[in-house]
Amino acid sequence: MSNAWINTNSGRQFFPLAPVADDIDVGDIARALSHMCRFAGHVERFYSVGEHSVHVSRAIEAMGGSLNDVRWGLLHDASEAYLVDIPRPLKITDGFAPYREAEKRLQAVVAVRFGLSVKEPEVVSQVDRSMVAIEADVLFVNRNAAWQAPYCEPRLKELVKISAWAPDRARREFLDRYKELFSSNISQRWVCQPCGMCGLNVEKYCTRCGSSDVGVFDADR
Ligand SMILES: [Zn+2]
Q1: Which of 108, 119, 165, 183 is the most exposed place for a label (fewest CB within 10 A)?
Q2: Residue 208 Cα, ligand 1 centroid: separation in angstroms?
Q3: CA of 220 to the centre of ligand 1 (A)
Q4: In contact, 131 and 160? CB cutoff 8 Å
Q5: Ligand 1 centroid, distance to 219 Cα (angstroms)
Q6: How far is Cα 126 from Cα 15, in angstroms, rounded to an integer?
Q7: 155: CA distance to ligand 1 center in Å?
């Protein structure tokens, strides 16, 4: 165990099996996740865990998630920066139980590091699962007949647009989103009365339908 460390992009000595909050760096997370391809790389175009994380976070915001939910959405796969992305069908097997334990431990330390709730909010796993269906439609061309897309919330299909950003773009978008959610003082949220679109911080117009009929509320954490 003592030797099980990796050299992170920033030069840190990181122990994925014995993680320490102080060693978790958002720059390292953004760098690694923007270089990591989802679906174990079996996609038509490069599509990173970093981009996926940005979409999950934005979708949760648009659906009216709290600030904690939205932040969790951005960082829900942060452990993969240190443990890499294992496809779900493999990850849920008995053989991968130690991986799941390590992932759970690491995500708990990530939650401490970024001041998130200890438990991942339910909406994060719901949106995360739905995203697979949306991503597969765009990126997964030669689908085996036995492959079944998970249930996808219909509203999410119109909210999420898969771009397949190159790594540099994905890293920038991830870090911009991080700054937006963690550096600024978000005190309010809005809900569009006609279309139900939601967002953090005050907007005069709905970002989806353009209506000025938006209700403003205090942001719940
Ligand atoms: Zn609207």
Answers
A1: 183
A2: 5
A3: 21
A4: yes
A5: 19
A6: 30
A7: 13
- Report CA(159)–ligand 1 centroid distance (Å): 12
Q: What is the pLDDT of residues 164-218, one digit of tens each?
A: 999 999 999 999 999 999 987 788 899 999 999 999 987 788 988 999 999 998 8
155/157 Cα distance (integer angstroms): 5
Whether pLDDT at 34 is above 70 = yes
Token pair 């403003």: residue: 216
What is the 205 CA–ligand 1 centroid distance (Å)?
Answer: 8
Tell whether pTM > 0.85: yes
Distance from residue 212's CA to the centre of ligand 1 (Å): 8
Q: Within 10 A of 180 (CB to CB), how many other CB atoms are there? A: 16
DSSP states of 73-93: HHHTTTTHHHH----HHHHTS
C-alpha of residue 3 to centroid of ligand 1, in Å: 53
Instruction: Render pLDDT for 116-160 as a digit per residue (tens, 0 to 9).
Output: 999 999 999 999 999 999 999 999 889 999 999 999 988 899 899
CA of 198 to the centre of ligand 1 (A): 8
What is the pLDDT, as a whole number, of residue 202? 74
Q: How far away, in angstroms, is 170 Cα from ligand 1 center? A: 27
In the block, tokens 């942001």 appear at: 219
Distance CA 212, CA 65 (A): 21
Q: Which of 64, 78, 71 lies closest to 31, judged by CA?
A: 78
Is CATH 3.40.50.300 the classification given to domain 6-184? Answer: no
What gap in Å lies between CA 149 and CA 138, rounded to an integer? 12
Amino acid found at 134: I
